Structure prediction request, 123 residues.
Amino acid sequence: MRKSLIKALLSGFAILLISSTSINPIIDLIDFKIVTAEKKVTITWETQFEQNVKNYYIERAINDGEYKRLGTVNSNGNSTELSKYNFRDQFSEDFAGKAKYRLMLQDTQGHCSRSTSRSITFR
Prediction:
């Protein structure tokens, strides 16, 4: 079996997943941010290069609980140009606590890899 490598770069950090498939999904994740306005959250990310990427899943954990999938954003497919993505989330006005977000990348064969997380605290 040939091993493949998923590599995502984020601010100098690399995410690697070794799998036994002949497809080699690769992304160059150049930005991953959380922007808030009141209780509205916008998750944004940019890639400079994507190969064999199918979907991005957005996951959230509340107050250090387990991550749950919020939604899916389709990849732009194989690309060597800048791709910009976003996803919106909203909390009730009375919510107070910490929310952590991360991306889960799915390749064209169904294998997944996760990014590092970003967090925000509401008071």
In short: DSSP finds no helices and ten strands in the chain. The chain has one domain: 4-122.
